[in-house]
Amino acid sequence: MLIAALLAISHPAEWKAEQDKSDKDVVYIPDDSYSIEIKTSSQNKIFGNRSYGQKNSIHNSGKQKYGYYLAINFEKYEVSNPTPSIKRIKFGWLDHNDWKAQVAATGQNSTLDNDAWNHKLKLLYGR
Fold this sequence. Notes:
The chain is built from 2 helices and 9 strands. It is mainly beta. The chain has a 4-stranded mixed beta sheet. A 3-stranded antiparallel beta sheet has the order 4-8-7. It has a two-stranded antiparallel ribbon with strand order 1-2. Strand 7 and strand 8 (109-112) form a beta hairpin. The protein is globular and about 40 Å long. The two termini are 24 Å apart.
């Protein structure tokens, strides 16, 4: 991911990109508890895969579902909009139970609880 790569280049003693399955997207080397998961979407919220709504087990990604999140929403790429812009950037701490797994057994995503989206992730940029 570009953000992780840029941080790793500019601050190599402090930051690195995800290297292991259990790593967050951006790893803070001195203290992993400050590592960051990045979620992006062209929709108005962010989404995780189904495992985000489930407790850690051998059946999911292995990443901790709680921690710091950087949420970036952007305009959808279309032929009429070949250079989409960033619409919103939010940052904050999310807990495992802020994620709601899709109910259907065949469902593949998790959504973020409205309270968490509105109050736990703080707006850094919006237009």
